[in-house]
Design brief:
Elements: E1 13-20, E2 47-48, E3 52-68, E4 78-92, H1 97-104, E5 108-112, E6 120-126, E7 137-145, E8 148-162, E9 175-181, E10 190-193
Antiparallel strand pairs: 1-2, 1-7, 3-4, 4-9, 5-6, 7-8, 8-9, 8-10
């Protein structure tokens, strides 16, 4: 088969979206089954994280294996699956309620005055617990090139790692998140596309 440069793909634009992980109850997040529009519009029930830094979004499926060795062979005769993972990593640029709450793992609350009749002060507070509770979320990554759309969906996930914020005069604040898939009915996630896959 000849090499075909037309099959090389880029991701010049896209979007990263989140919603609460589906519970199956009334009002629960409905997982998307369409390919979307390359990140221009959030899937129903999802919110956009906004701008991501120029390094884009990294999607890493991984399978960890253990070799099975035998007396009669100098090389493994089989590999056994030890673990699997599906990971999304991105550095967010927008300072918003959605981004900062996911980054800090806490919720913004407006501070009320100490009067007998408390009134909002216009100041917001985010309390970082010494025993934080991890929340589950659902993640969608969309991208497109030349009219061909791709969508990766992770039904259940948790933020497993966060980078540090650097405060500088000449560089924007960045919120680095690593998000790992959790088991969802025996799966980690799925990928959708409207591009016909050929040999």
């Amino acid at each position: 088969m000849a090499n075909d440069a037309s099959k090389i793909r880029f991701a010049p634009n896209g979007g990263l979206f989140m919603a609460p992980s589906p519970t199956g109850g009334t009002g629960s997040t409905v997982l998307p089954d369409d390919v979307g529009d390359g990140g221009k519009t959030a899937p129903a029930g999802y919110k956009s994280f906004g701008y991501v830094d120029e390094s884009g979004v990294t999607i890493t499926p991984s399978i960890e294996t253990d070799p099975v060795n035998a007396w009669q062979s100098a090389v493994p005769v089989l590999y056994n699956v030890k673990g699997a993972s599906f990971q999304i990593k991105a550095t967010l640029l927008e300072t918003s309620k959605l981004t900062t709450e996911q980054f800090y793992g806490a919720t913004w609350v407006e501070v009320m005055s100490d009067d007998t009749t408390p009134v909002p002060t216009g100041v917001y507070r985010l309390d970082l617990s010494s025993t934080p509770e991890l929340s589950e979320l659902s993640i969608v990554v969309d991208w497109a090139q030349k009219g061909k759309n791709y969508r990766t969906v992770i039904p259940r996930a948790m933020i497993s790692d966060r980078g540090g914020i650097t405060l500088q005069r000449t560089e924007a604040q960045k919120y680095e998140l690593t998000i790992d898939a959790l088991d969802y009915n025996g799966g980690l996630g799925y990928v959708l596309t409207d591009e016909v896959m050929t040999a």
